[in-house]
Every structure is written in structure tokens, then in C-alpha cells.
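User: Can you help me understand a structure? I only have the sequence.
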Amino acid sequence: MNRVIQAGFANNKVRVVAVDSTNMTIHMQKIHDLYPMSTVILGRVSTAAILLGTWMSEKEKVSIFFDGDGPAGEVVAKSDNNLNVKSYIKNKKIEAMFKENGHFDVQKAIGEGNLHVIRDMELKDPVTSNVEIISGEIAEDIAYYMNQAEQIPSAVSLGVLLDKDGVRASGGIMLQILDQSMNENELIDYEKRFMSIPPITSYLDKGNDLRDLINIFGESDYIEEKNAQYKCDCNDERVKNSLVSFDIEELEDMKKQGGIKVKCEWCSKEYNIDEKDLEEIIVGKGSKNA
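Assistant: Let's start by predicting it. Here is the structure, written out as C-alpha cells:
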């Protein structure tokens, strides 16, 4: 279970979302066989996808794509409004890099580049927002996206806590100011409350409840609780359809080799595509080109 709690404050002018993504991050580390450094990065980005997923409208999907020049390579996470999440990182075996304070140097691993956030509302074309990676620490970059692209002042905190046995805690929290007409004293108060929050992973590692974290912001107008889950939608049909883009000559070569194995980048599941499958794809391409 990955608990997600969201609440409104100040007559719904303020929104707060808190996530405990520990189980999801443990699952991701296992299925992708991630090194610790890669686990921290993918855990943060995937948790960010949950935070943004709670903000999406019904049937809407959001994709977060960090395209930096650091050793992490591409880092992508997707979530829908039901908080079904899937994600991948190009470099699953990043050698650990540390800051002077002993924390993982996520900024160095991500590097410089751009953050792309794609909102698919099932309209003709998805809406894509592109902003510069200003930090590489993930949380600051998501907040920057919210402030710049969505024009919603936001603060975000993300974290993944590891020990020698693996993931101990993973989570995040986001504060959004939905009504910028609030007076300055109110805004400062909510900012101070956010800044008073301890590191989310330390908080969760001690067994504290997310609702107590939400209560730091005062009496809520509403409070809702959901569960997020890691869920990949790959299947045989999708994998076979992905091969249609290959030339017939390339498909024939695959067939001569006795078939191929295709590994899903989202969940690492392997699919065996045999000669019969490849022949069906070849025949289908031939009929379309006729």
C-alpha cells in the first residue's frame, strides 16, 4: 500500500498532498534491479508523478521526463488520475556519488538539461510543458514547473532513505497555493508551516502517520485518502504492435534467428516473440503496403 492523502485549507485556497511511496520504491528497485543511486532518483521522480497525478482531472494522465546530460540518462515516470504509476531510468547501475554532507548527489547524476511534463487529457494532442532543470534534485524542479508552466505557486519535498538492506522509506509532500489573492501574512504562514516539516523519509521511517503531517497546516476543509500502485499495462499485443515499426527485412532477420526476446522498459517483463508471431507481423505489414 502506498498511502496518498490530500487536503484543502483556507476555504480551499491551499492544497496539500502527502505520499508514502515506500512499497512502490521497494518494488521498483526489485523489478529494475537498481543500484542505490538509481533507486533514489527513480523513487523521487515516481513519487513526484503521484503528487502530480492527484492534481489531474478524471481520465487525465501525466508524464514526467527528466532529460539531463548526467550519468542517469533519461528518467521517466507516468501516473494517471487513479494513481497507477510506472517508471524507468536509462542507467540502472549508477555508481554512487555523494555530497560533502554524505547525501546522494542527485543533482550531479541528473546533470543539466530539460524537464518535460506531458499532460494527456485524451484530446487531439497532449499538452507538453518544457522547463529548464534548475536543480536536478527533482523536488525543486517539480516546484519550478508548477510555478512557471502551471502558474501555481508550489513547494515540493521528496526523498528516498536507504540502508545496507535496501529502501527504508520513500515519500513526498506538495503545497500548492491555488488562490494568489491570499494576503501576504497567510502565505508566509503556510510557507513557514511547510518549512517546519521534517525530512519526509525521516518522518516516515519513525512510523509517523501522514495525517499528522497534514495537520501541521491547520484545520482542513476536506481530507481524502487514496492508494497509489505501480502498475504496468504492457501485454503481448502491445509488444507485437511495437515491432510493426521495423522494416520487413529486419523482421525477416529476427525470424531467421528463431525469434527474439523483448523486455518491457517499464516493468522488466520479458516477452518471447517466436517465428509465428513475426510471420503474422510481416504478413500484416505486407497487406497494408499492398
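Now, to help you interpret it: The chain has a mean pLDDT of 94. Residues 2-230 form a domain with the Hsp33 domain fold (CATH 3.55.30.10). Let me know which part you'd like to focus on.
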